[in-house]
Write a structure and sequence with these properties.
279 residues, alpha/beta, Rossmann fold, 5-stranded parallel β-sheet
Length: 279
């Protein structure tokens, strides 16, 4: 499958002209919907000419703006694929199912390392480890289990780590707590959840939070509100997307954060264990 256009735009950005950087900024600010406007509307928003946009999209092997839009529509459809849709094109395994499945999973995990640079990994670790900034965590229908895994470990490493409950009626309580530059970690994979997007908008616009988004290559709409975006591989070749790459990333973050100041981590875990109830 072709590389997602938003990722291509980021990769090529260093070679853009001034006009092309304006187009890229407008597209990424409301991706992919800004690119589904007419060429004249996009040109007006970016303060460039329509021919400039035509030349811009040709850099992504698109023979015109209409083909560029068809690519965006295809990405939107991919981002809404259900297990039923995925099963139609799955790769069957006749023998040795477990070994084949584990091999595919290991390949997914290795691709995580290709997509997350060491600089970004260290930057995000530093944000999560900064004890001056509170941490808030939440995920989607399935990925919230991974979000809880992250928050439970971080609570043993540092203070002021909160996991938001799934009930949106409780979210205002947490939004009232969030201060400027606090961290909100959100996991949102395809079949993206509108309620999480609404939460991200409020956390950024009204609270000044910095959002770390962990998503897939089709990019949750939350990306336009995120300070950091990690786009992970999730395709397993079966009816189910795999979160093994996400879990591997989370465990790496937990370990790295704990070891950055092991003396403080050790002391907190020791105090934590002393206060645990012995049943």
């Amino acid at each position: 499958m072709p590389v997602i256009l938003s990722l291509q735009i980021n990769e090529k950005s260093k070679d853009f002209t001034t006009a092309e950087r304006k187009i890229a900024a407008v597209l990424l600010s409301d991706y992919p919907f800004a690119g589904l406007e007419t060429i004249h509307v996009l040109a007006e928003r970016a303060h460039v000419s329509a021919p400039t946009i035509t030349r811009f999209v040709q850099k992504f092997n698109c023979n015109g703006y209409q083909e560029f839009q068809r690519c965006l529509i295809s990405e939107l459809k991919e981002g809404q694929q259900s297990p039923i849709d995925l099963r139609r094109r799955s790769m069957p395994v006749d023998d040795g199912f477990l070994q084949t499945f584990l091999k595919r999973s290991s390949e997914v995990c290795m691709r995580v390392g290709e997509g997350v640079t060491d600089d970004q990994f260290k930057r995000i670790s530093g944000m999560l480890a900064d004890r001056k900034r509170n941490n808030y965590h939440i995920g989607g229908r399935i990925s919230d289990a991974i979000s809880q895994y992250l928050s439970r470990h971080l609570r043993q490493i540092r203070n002021h780590v909160y996991h938001l409950p799934s009930d949106p009626e409780v979210w205002p309580e947490y939004l009232l707590r969030i201060r400027s530059r606090d961290i909100v970690v959100m996991l949102d994979f395809r079949r993206y959840e509108p309620r999480l997007l609404a939460l991200a908008e409020r956390a950024e616009d009204e609270c000044g939070a910095q959002i770390i988004l962990i998503t897939d290559k089709w990019l949750s709409p939350i990306a336009r509100h995120a300070k950091e975006v990690i786009a992970l591989p999730i395709e397993s070749g079966t009816a189910w997307d795999t979160y093994c790459g996400a879990l591997g990333l989370i465990e790496a973050l937990i370990t790295h954060i704990a070891e950055q100041d092991w003396e403080a981590t050790q002391q907190r875990i020791g105090n934590w264990d002393k206060l645990r109830l012995n049943y």
